[in-house]
Amino acid sequence: MPPENDRFERTVPPPIPAEPTARALHHPEFADDTLVPQDKGITIAWHKVPYQLGGWPEWNPDREDHRTAYRQLLQPEGGDVFYVTGDQISPLPGWQEGAMMSAQYVTQQILGVMPRTVREVITVPDSVALTQGLV
Distance between CA 135 and CA 131 in Å, rounded? Predict the structure, then answer.
C-alpha cells in the first residue's frame, strides 16, 4: 500500500510532436493526423508509474504443460458460457495489442465465426522472446 503522501498525479503532459517520417515508417496509417490527431494520442511509460511494474505469463513453447494449459485457456468452459480473454492468452503476451487480439478472438468464438474448440497442435507464444524484443 502506498504511503499517504505518495500520491500519483493524474496529469497528462502536452503531446510531443512526432516526426512524420518516423510515424510513417513504423505505422504508415498514422501518418495522416485525421486518423489519430497528435493532441489526442497518449503514451504511458508504465515502468515509471509507481507500483505498476506489469507482468505477463512466461509461456515456453518447448514445455508440454504450457502447450496444454494455453490450449485449454483458448476454449470456452461450462457449456460455452465462460471465456478467458486477455494478453496472457494471445500471440502477444505482455502487450495491449495482445489483449485486443484475444478479445477479438473470443468475440468471434461467441458469434460463431471461429470454432469454440482448438485444434490439437497449437503454437504457444515465446513470452521471454516477445517481452524482451527478441522476436
Answer: 9
pLDDT tens digit string along 27-46?
A: 666 667 777 677 776 677 76
**Region 47-60 average pLDDT:** 76
State how far the Cα of 12 lies from the Cα of 15, in Å rounded to an integer.
Answer: 8
Mean per-residue pLDDT of the chain: 77
Cα dihedral 47/42/85/48 (nearest 10): 10
Cβ within 8 Å of residue 91, ≥6 positions away: 98, 101, 123, 125
Q: How many CA atoms lie within 13 A of 114 on its CB side?
A: 17
pLDDT at 1: 47
